[in-house]
């Protein structure tokens, strides 16, 4: 990884702390949110460079899934809800620049560019939602299975 990617990783972590402050995340959880943003962006960069070069959907899906799993882990460890951990850690994945460029192209009547950026924004948003949904579904299912097995009942 080059200097640019390392700068991106640490910028994402610092940005997560900032959003944690905005979301009134407890101060003792701010470093954990920063680690989540760092790890999420690391997964995104790794997948977009090595696993799915040039892709949008699959690297974002993998990063969002990892971020949601990290939030679930923290929720169990800290006895807190997972949503605040996820919301702060997923911030580096939010497609702010592509949405901006889409709206700018629309204002300037550049339909082709607007469609291209709009498609990218949609893919990012869909991947974030899908990664989160998959992780939370798996965690919910595993909790139900553990609960059923601990009662000695059927699944």
Structural notes for this entry:
- With 155 residues, the chain is mainly α.
- Helix content is 79%, strand content 0%.
- The chain has six helices and no strands.
- The protein starts with a helix and ends in a 5-residue tail after the last helix.
- The mean pLDDT is 91.
What class do helices, strands and sheet pairing give?
A: mainly alpha
Low-confidence stretches: none
- Computed CA radius of gyration, to the nearest angstrom: 18 Å
Q: Sheet bearing the most strands, described? A: none
Q: How does the overall form come out from the CA principal axes?
A: globular
Distance linking N and C termini: 45 Å
Q: Helix and strand succession? A: HHHHHH
Helical amount? over 70%
Number of strands: 0
Q: Averaged pLDDT, please? A: 91
Strand content: under 5%
Number of helices: 6
Short description:
By secondary structure, the protein is mainly α.
SSE diagram, text form:
Elements: H1 3-22, H2 30-51, H3 57-78, H4 83-89, H5 96-107, H6 111-150
Helix pairs in contact: 1-2, 1-4, 2-3, 2-4, 3-4, 3-6, 5-6
Keywords:
single chain; 155 residues; mainly alpha; 0% strand; globular
């Amino acid at each position: 990884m080059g200097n640019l990617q390392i700068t991106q990783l640490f910028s994402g972590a610092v940005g997560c702390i900032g959003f944690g402050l905005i979301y009134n995340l407890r101060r003792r959880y701010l470093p954990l949110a920063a680690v989540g943003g760092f790890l999420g962006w690391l997964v995104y960069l790794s997948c977009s460079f090595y696993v799915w070069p040039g892709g949008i959907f699959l690297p974002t899906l993998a990063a969002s899934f990892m971020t949601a799993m990290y939030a679930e882990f923290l929720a169990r460890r800290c006895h807190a809800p997972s949503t605040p951990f996820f919301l702060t850690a997923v911030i580096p994945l939010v497609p702010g620049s592509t949405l901006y460029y889409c709206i700018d192209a629309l204002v300037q009547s550049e339909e082709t560019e607007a469609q291209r950026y709009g498609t990218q924004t949609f893919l990012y948003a869909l991947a974030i939602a899908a990664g989160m949904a998959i992780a939370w579904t798996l965690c919910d299912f595993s909790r139900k299975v553990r609960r059923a097995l601990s009662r000695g009942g059927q699944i």
